[in-house]
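Hello again, I could really use a second opinion on something today. I've dropped the whole record in just underneath, so have a look.
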Amino acid sequence: MHHVGLHVRSLPTSCAFYSLFNFTEAVRFRTGASRACWLADPDRPTAPLLELIEAPPRPPLPKAPRKHPPPPLGLNHLCLDVSPAPLGPVLSALQASSLLLHNRTVAVARQPRQQIVGGAVYELCFLEDPDGGLVELLSRGATLEEGAATEMRW
């Protein structure tokens, strides 16, 4: 496992809380319109990371139910690192296995795309588990040259 993502109300408050468990900020970045960061345990460099995703402020609840409510706080997704394999063949093999074993394909919530986090280029996609939970597949690609990575500031 590479990381676990949590929706949080405040990155500074959550970073402070998780520092109680020896997590320190490894990198800040944006995912869509949200601010995010990866936290790592410096004493356990191979341990999974904790990704904090700052949830946007919630609007007041409407009188009628909303079609797409704002995301809840807490667990956002589980990430599985498939590196060094590229995502395309991994996703194709996964779909073929699912079809063969279960007579159905896996729902793709977000198609594969690239994202720069820190000084590395990642390829990622999101799948849905049977209960609608998000499972991210992640493959680390190229490492950017020193100075080539753009710093993501909040």
